[in-house]
Specification:
alpha/beta, Alkaline Phosphatase, subunit A, three-stranded mixed sheet, 15 helices, 538 residues, 2 domains, disordered C terminus, 32% helix
């Protein structure tokens, strides 16, 4: 009788758990998991080689909560609970936190944060590639003495190759900060300066890419209309070019590359992209959309579509690595940010996963003994994970159960939400009832607390992941512009071009391992001596 009662009770419990969407977590040897991590840490050594190559991955808006949600989302897509999943760059041996505030803003924009990363200098809101003496829209302050040199400029000065790959417009804030200098990130093409009555002779960002930075060998992303005159019509979507100065910057780019004797290609779709042979190509300009490239969930993969971030990264590396002196490549997952701004969390998380694929491809194509790879974000978003959902609960679903933190309005809510953004429907009284709503759809807009047209950035620190030469310098909690200094030092360029005399060690050498073992033994000896000393005091 007691057995039947116990069995019935257990069946009720299981049934209740299943109804609540609870997933029974897999058995985990937590002790072994921690021990393995500890042993791995004890065997860790430093690679002090010169960084011949550097690849900087910027997940635009990829804060800590985004990384967490993306790893869970990835695991759940693979049929796992999700929380235990690891993104490829989370395996990197060195991790730090980056303080993203700008010179004049507690919560920054992408122009000033990207400038900090690229140039090693914190600057003001909306400023691209200038120091803090320049304020938004002040064209007269665009002087030579206020200009900052980016890591791309330093690599070019050292005779190394450079490239920029992004899913945003090539002239957008983050990629622009790698090559341009502008008192306003919005000055992407000439007509903007005229429309806003900017006084002075400031150059637009697209113009600077072609005329002032023609050394860049690979530039791929969106934003065709910024390069074409308004007398032309885009062959893909029928939109007009935006330039009013009559310049066709695509033709000008081709002319510049021909003058340099480079075998160059201009491509606008996947078919043309796929036909690029890195072995016979020296430079590429890829403009795959009139504005930003498509979200991964929408991407047209056919010949008339566009390549993925992973594919662009692979092509760029294969072209740039032909330079025996080395290369620098910026890879931006630009649409992570846009998904968050629209409160469309699924789109943002899908962008993180395609960004991860690009990181994985870069690791495969390079030698970690000579290539420093850094993965970070320019800033975060007001994106949070909350409630007390069961382990394995759909990260895009409702927080389940609501037993421990029921909403005061008696309505369900999702595990992930936003502090502000378009997701708050303020045309109705109270919060929208999302019972029965498919919160996992590609276009679902997460609820937000404050109604604004475009969700804002977040001000908390963001992670930095690093592997390769001098990656151990990525540690602790650092100011964001510190990353720019690490890259210059690791590659022996720019400010640190005279600091090239450093000990070169094999990170897997026995001597390095012996040093760690000796240090560990020394700690034990000091500990024993400390105990003996304490005993003597008594």
């Amino acid at each position: 009788m007691a057995y039947r009662t116990l069995t019935s009770f257990l069946l009720v419990c299981v049934s209740y758990s299943l109804c609540q969407g609870q997933i029974v977590p897999p058995e985990t040897d937590w002790d072994k998991l921690a021990t393995d991590s500890l042993n791995k840490a004890l065997k860790q050594t430093y690679n002090t080689n010169l960084a011949k190559n550097i690849i900087l991955f910027i997940g635009d808006g990829m804060g800590v909560s985004t990384v967490t949600a993306a790893r869970i989302y990835k695991g759940q897509k693979q049929g796992h609970p999700g929380e235990e999943t690891i993104l490829k760059f989370e395996e990197f041996p060195h991790v730090a936190l980056s303080k993203t505030y700008g010179n004049d803003r507690q919560v920054p924009d992408s122009a000033q944060t990207a400038t900090a990363l690229m140039s090693g200098y914190k600057t003001n809101f909306y400023i691209v590639g200038f120091n803090d003496k320049v304020t938004e829209g002040n064209c007269s302050a665009e002087t030579e003495e206020n200009k900052l040199k980016s890591i791309l400029h330093h690599f070019n000065d050292a005779g190394r190759s450079t490239g920029v790959v992004t899913t945003a417009r090539l002239t957008h804030a983050t990629p622009a900060s790698s090559y341009a200098n502008s008192a306003n990130r919005d000055w992407e093409y000439d007509a903007i300066l005229r429309e806003t009555n900017v006084a002075g002779n400031c150059k637009d960002i697209a113009y600077q890419l072609v005329y002032d930075n023609s050394y860049i060998q690979v530039a791929m992303g969106g934003g065709r209309t910024r390069f074409l005159p308004n007398t032309t019509t885009d062959t893909e979507d029928g939109s007009k070019g935006k330039r009013t100065d009559g310049l066709n910057l695509v033709s000008e780019w081709q002319k510049k590359q021909n003058e340099k004797g480079r075998r160059n290609q201009y491509v606008t779709n996947k078919l043309e992209f796929d036909r690029i042979d890195p072995a016979t190509t020296d430079s590429v300009l890829g403009l795959f959309e009139s504005s930003h490239m498509q979200y991964e969930v929408d991407r047209n993969k056919a010949n008339d579509g566009e390549p993925s971030l992973e594919e662009m990264t692979e092509k760029a590396i294969k072209i740039l690595k032909k330079n025996t002196k080395g290369f620098f490549l910026l890879v931006e997952g630009g649409r992570i940010d846009h998904g968050h701004h629209d409160n469309t969390a699924k789109r943002a998380l899908e962008e993180v996963l395609t960004f991860e694929n690009a990181v994985r491809k870069a690791i495969k194509l390079t030698n970690q003994e000579e290539t420093l790879i850094i993965v970070t974000a320019d800033h975060s978003h007001v994106f949070s994970i909350g409630g007390y959902p069961y382990r394995g609960n759909d990260i895009l679903g409702l927080a389940n159960p609501l037993l421990y933190e029921p909403s005061l309005d008696k309505l369900p809510y999702t595990t992930i939400s936003y502090g502000n953004g378009p997701g708050m429907n303020y045309t109705i009284v109270g919060r929208q009832n999302i019972t029965g709503v498919d919160t996992t759809s590609d276009n679902y807009v997460q609820q937000s607390a404050v109604p604004v047209a475009s969700e804002s950035h977040g001000g908390e620190d963001v992670p930095i992941f690093a592997m390769g030469p001098m990656s151990h310098l990525i540690h602790g909690v650092q100011e964001q512009h510190y990353v720019g200094h690490v890259m210059q030092f690791a590659a022996c360029v720019g400010k640190y071009s005279n600091n090239c005399d450093r000990k070169v060690t094999n990170p897997h050498s026995a001597s390095s391992a012996n040093e760690i073992q000796f240090s560990f033994l020394r700690m034990i000896i000091y500990g024993i001596l400390g105990v003996i000393h304490s005993m003597c005091l008594f």
